[in-house]
Prior knowledge:
This protein has one domain (3-180). The chain contains five helices and two strands. The chain has helices at 3-24, 26-42, 50-72, 87-119, 152-180, and strands spanning 122-124, 135-137. A two-stranded antiparallel sheet has the order 1-2. The protein is globular. The termini are close together.
Amino acid sequence: MPRWSIAFVRLVDRLNYGIGRMAMYLLFALMAILMWSTFSKLVLTPSLWTLEMAQFVMVAYYILGGPYSMQMGAHVRMDLMYARWDIRKQAWTDAFTVFALIIYLGIMLWGAFDSFSYSLGVKWGEPGLFGLSWPEIGRLERSPTAWRPYLWPIKAILCLGFFLMLLQSITYLIRDIATIRGEEI
Length: 185
């Protein structure tokens, strides 16, 4: 395999490992938010922000932990026949399914980025010079609840999570190609 592909695989693995390990601690933040919610309902007046904040933290935990979970092999796999196959046949099957996953994650990233730009109020103007249109920043999107937080931070985390999952999928495709070729990364 080319040196750039090996360097890419190692860089993405290191990046997703670090972000995934940090995302694990979001579970403690989620517990603290839910404990505060319970305490405030019993003793004080209920807080408006706790339910939505808990949802945001859970989304970040889930989305940023996805690439780490994929890297560690913690996803569920049905291996009724797969476990009996030789390594190269497994690599061919994995390459096909990872290629399908890359297409799916590309579409999800596109949708997440579109939603993120909408939350920033980006609207594309009329085509101008050389057919280019310039973005116009408008009103920032807010949640329709009583707390009314801005939605762009969680949508940015969605974009980051899908991008990291896409990078991790590409590393799996590179590893599968190396296995098919009889090499190891």
